[in-house]
Amino acid sequence: MSKVAVLLRVLPDDAETKPEELYKKIAAALPEKYQVAQYQAEPIAFGLEALRMVILMPEETEGGTEELETIIQSVQGVSQVDVLNVTRFSG
């Protein structure tokens, strides 16, 4: 089964929320078919840090990244989810 790698930027709802906290909440909320391949903090401004994530998902997922975005958006502490890139992953 082929997979795609989805690069996301997740913005917290306030500057007090740390990227590591968001990562833990998001990872716990994701179903098994999604796999976090990489994550890192991205400084934005005035102490606000976004979370950049690469998530692997099945290529055949109905609706593309919509389900993934909805799941992450529903996590407490998440303000916004931006899909930055989607590419086929072989490995």
Account of the protein in words:
This protein is of the alpha+beta class. It has a single domain (3-89), classed as Ribosomal protein S6/Translation elongation factor EF1B (Alpha-Beta Plaits, 2-Layer Sandwich), CATH 3.30.70.60. It is 21% helix and 48% strand. The protein is built from 2 helices and 4 strands. The protein has a 4-stranded antiparallel sheet, with helices on one face. A hairpin with a 2-residue loop joins β2 (35-45) and β3. The longest helix is centred in the first third of the chain and has 11 residues, at 19-29. It is elongated, with a radius of gyration of 13 Å. The termini are close together. InterPro entries: eEF-1beta-like_sf, EF1B_bsu/dsu_GNE, Transl_elong_EF1B/ribsomal_bS6, Transl_elong_EF1B_B_arc. This is Elongation factor 1-beta. Keywords: Elongation factor, Protein biosynthesis. GO terms for molecular function: translation elongation factor activity. Promotes the exchange of GDP for GTP in EF-1-alpha/GDP, thus allowing the regeneration of EF-1-alpha/GTP that could then be used to form the ternary complex EF-1-alpha/GTP/AAtRNA.
Q: What would CATH call the class? A: Alpha Beta
Distance between the termini: 11 Å
Please give the number of β-strands: 4
Average pLDDT value? Answer: 93
- The percent of residues in helical segments reads 10-25%
Low-confidence stretches: none
Tell me which CATH architecture applies here. Answer: 2-Layer Sandwich
**CATH homologous superfamily caption:** Ribosomal protein S6/Translation elongation factor EF1B
The whole-angstrom Rg is 13 Å
How is the largest sheet built, in terms of strand order?
2-3-1-4
Shape: elongated
If you consult CATH, what is the topology?
Alpha-Beta Plaits
Number of domains: 1
- Proportion of β residues? over 45%
Largest sheet: 4 strands, antiparallel
Q: How many H/I helices? A: 2
Helix/strand/pairing category: alpha+beta
Helix and strand string, N-terminal first?
EHEEHE
